[in-house]
Amino acid sequence: MTIGVLGGGQLGRMLAEAAGALNLRCKFYDKAADACAGQIAELIVGDWCDEQNLARFAEGCDVITFEWENVPVETARFVERFAPVRPSITALEQTQDRAKEKALFGKLGIPAAPYELVQTEGEFTAALEKLNAPCILKTRRMGYDGKGQMRIDTADDAARLAEFRGKECILEKRVAFDRELSIIAVRGTNGEIAHYNLVENHHSEGILRTTISPAPNVSQTLQSAAESYAKRMLEALNYSGVLAIELFQVGSELLANEFAPRVHNSGHWSIEGAVTSQFENHLRAVCGLPLGSTANRYRCVMTNIIGEDAGVPEPNEKRFVHMYGKQPRPGRKIGHITEIVEPYQ
Ligand code: AMP
């Protein structure tokens, strides 16, 4: 089978690495000629609206997926004429707009931080009065890794709004969380669902730095709550593939921050640390194959290699180094390391 992947970054590259074991082939489409998945698999280069190149990419694909959630919905609709697009175009639409994402959480009874939609200064002031500082202002579209966000600490911060003027945003209450967690779940085309253990994530400057798998001190109740939120999302979106939900833990409660309709950075540990990696399970799910076990084989810690970080450590039998073949730039994820701590019982 050939799987077409919209987006050719490191997530795609790791999908292609997992494809071989299943005797599958990945083919990529990206705007950038140096997209790093192209170093190990076929890459078609073109704009997201270039129908000629998109057709060249989509022809011969048995199924099409995406590894970047900002692929334009029109692009996904166009390639759907050639092969089914999974997880689902609806999921893509929901995740591209924070307002729709929040509304979906609300509709499914998944707790999240209180928020207001804002665009004008008047709306911002009214929303801030309602929510009270501290808050976070986020653009509704195209924000990731902390981009398109501003921390609002006092009511006077309205004066700093210039860079957001006119943009559709959400103002969100800042959560005094105990820690950040995420759940990665997967659903097959037959409705079968599996979940990985909750993991604990550490960010700095809005970018994921480290993931601990499994998250320490997770009660069965907390794990079950996360699984139930993921199940609601997977079923509501009639989803096939891997889904990640980023969560804030506050006491014994979980609040959803955002979801990603794709393989996720906080699941990279699963390549060595789980029986079946998130990449293999995503491929299995979109191709209609039975899912693999999501159980941990090891306790492990994943650390991103970011930007011009000096020195990549030497791999050894407990340390697995993955470099993505990307040019280092400040704030850019260029690789990751998974350290095995001990077998998981
Ligand atoms: P996001 O792009 O929404 O994933 O935000 C990036 C990071 O900013 C999160 O992982 C949190 O560390 C922080 N953050 C985002 N929203 C909130 C919030 N409502 N309260 C506290 N921290 C937040």
Helix content: 10-25%
Please count the helical segments.
9
Estimated structural class: alpha+beta
Q: Assign the CATH class of the largest domain.
A: Alpha Beta
SSE blueprint and pairings:
Blueprint (H helix, E strand, L loop, with lengths): L1 E5 L3 H10 L5 E6 L11 E4 L5 H8 L4 E4 L6 H7 L9 H7 L2 H10 L7 E4 L2 H11 L3 E5 L9 E4 L16 E5 L5 E9 L5 E3 L3 E6 L2 E7 L6 H17 L4 E10 L2 E8 L9 H4 L4 H10 L10 E9 L12 E5 L9 E11 L2
Parallel strand pairs: 1-2, 1-4, 2-3
Antiparallel strand pairs: 5-8, 6-7, 6-8, 9-10, 9-11, 9-13, 11-12, 12-15, 13-14, 15-17, 16-17
Helix pairs in contact: 1-9
Bound molecules: adenosine monophosphate.
The site of adenosine monophosphate (AMP) has 13 residues, from strand 14.
Which descriptors apply to this entry?
single chain, 345 residues, alpha+beta, Dna Ligase, domain 1, D-amino Acid Aminotransferase, Chain A, domain 1, 3 domains, 9-stranded antiparallel sheet, 4-stranded parallel sheet, 24% helix, binds adenosine monophosphate
Briefly say what this structure is.
With 345 residues, the chain is an alpha+beta fold. It has helices at 10-19, 51-58, 73-79, 89-95, 98-107, 121-131, 220-236, 270-273, 278-287, and strands at 2-6, 25-30, 42-45, 63-66, 115-118, 135-139, 149-152, 169-173, 179-187, 193-195, 199-204, 207-213, 241-250, 253-260, 298-306, 319-323, 333-343.
Explain the overall architecture.
Helix 1 (10-19) links the parallel strand 1 and strand 2. The protein has helices at residues 10-19, 51-58, 73-79, 89-95, 98-107, 121-131, 220-236, 270-273, 278-287; strands at 2-6, 25-30, 42-45, 63-66, 115-118, 135-139, 149-152, 169-173, 179-187, 193-195, 199-204, 207-213, 241-250, 253-260, 298-306, 319-323, 333-343. The chain starts with a strand and ends with a strand. It folds into 3 domains: 2-85, Rossmann fold (3-Layer(aba) Sandwich), CATH 3.40.50.20; 114-173, ATP-grasp fold, A domain (Dna Ligase, domain 1, 2-Layer Sandwich), CATH 3.30.1490.20; 179-343, ATP-grasp fold, B domain (D-amino Acid Aminotransferase, Chain A, domain 1, 2-Layer Sandwich). Helix 1 packs across helix 9 (278-287). Strands 9, 10, 11, 12, 13, 14, 15, 16 and 17 form a 9-stranded antiparallel β-sheet that branches. A 4-stranded parallel β-sheet has the order 3-2-1-4, sandwiched between helices. Strands 5-8-6-7 form a 4-stranded antiparallel β-sheet, with helices on both faces. It is of the alpha+beta class and 345 residues long. Bound molecules: adenosine monophosphate. Adenosine monophosphate is lined by residues 113, 136, 143, 146, 172, 174-175, 180, 203, 206, 246, 257-258. The site of adenosine monophosphate has 13 residues, from strand 14.
